Amino acid sequence: MLASIISAGRSGSSITAQLGVMRVTEEVEALSVMGISVTSRLVLPKVLALALALPLVAFCTDIAALAGGMLVSRFTLGITPEAFLAALPDAVDVIHFWIGIGKSIVFGAAVAFVACHYGLRVLPNTDSLAVGVTRSVVASITSVIILDAIFAIMLRNVPA
Amino acid sequence: MTADGAYVIEIEGLVNTVGSGVVLHRDLNLQVRRDEVLSLVGGSGSGKTQLIRVILGLKRPKAGRVLVFGVSWDDPSAKKVRDARRRMGMLFQNGALYSALTVFDNIAFPLRERGGVSEDEIRAIVNTKLAQVELEPRHGRLLPANLSGGMVKRVSLARALALSPDLLILDEPTAGLDPDRSESFVRLIKRLREDHRFAVVMVTHDLDTLFELTDRVAVLADQHIIACDTLDVVRGMDHRFVQNFFGGERGRRALEQA
Fold first, then answer.
1. pTM
2. Which of A13, B114, B146, B180 falls 20 to 30 Å from B65 in CA-CA distance?
3. Residue of A nearest to B98 (CA)
4. Chain A: nearest CA to B126, how far in angstroms?
5. Cα–Cα distance, A60 to A63 (Å, whole number)
6. What phi and psi, each to the nearest 5 degrees, are found at residue B169?
């Protein structure tokens, strides 16, 4: 979820700004005039890209979290890295890793959808662009939190 | 009359609104012939750009019938709509070039999207289009940010011509150009049209461009087309906008030079 919120701030705002500028410069209209679907040419690639990239970011944050935990355990509790890794499968079931990856796919798609939605609603003026980016980031983060809550309810019976 | 018979654009009884239902066009009728240059003129706020957006299918009208090549943008056949779109090209006022793509890729874009053309053929077509708009192949490597205003217009025109359209829509083609570049751009459009015989719908305030290119003028005022005829006929109309537009000092000067 942390990776998704960072992604909403970083990639979501970038997607909204990019599409918003394309609206301001009439590049989106130029696509429509050529008979090219804006959804398949602009929205779908971004949704797929973020749905694929966010699990990789989630994997990296998982590794960083475990490495951090290992270091703190070593210096505060005196647990060696070998002992930490040996005890890890009993402490955290591997299903939680896959749940995290699965959630990040959904979060990635949601962030990209929300960002594209606000980007394509930008009016041809700079004020609208600024408002669109702000709303996009707020809505993306909110959607991630709501989706996480829904996942928490759906997965409440999964053992810790 | 179908579009393939005589008209490329047919608009009947168009009602168009903006914002919270403010009526911009009411009972607007317009027909554009397949082999003519029709200029659309009107005062600021008369809705010229909105009318162009309706013709392009970027805006849905409140009521009325809009056919381009005999096809309504609401036609259930996606193929008919797509084919009609590919028969027209649009030159946006500010170019609307894809800023992330080079000049070459901008012109190649509609060809690649249409498909069925090899990269070698695309290269040949793009170089031909560059030559048609008096640019060289080396310009193909530039990004839009590195182009002058005149070059942006030329590249945008080359992209609009990439699929060899039967209808070209020009939104203020000479806006933002200095008089020399404006004149040379008008000559370029005139030459291209003589070579390829596509229909042109042009929104312009530039009287020199109007006198140089136009076959018929459509005057948009009082929420509809008040006249659509040759320049000589329209100039003789007893309407305040027409008299101000053509009878002012700029109008008389342009007429003397024509």
1. 0.81
2. B114
3. A27
4. 17
5. 5
6. -110, 125
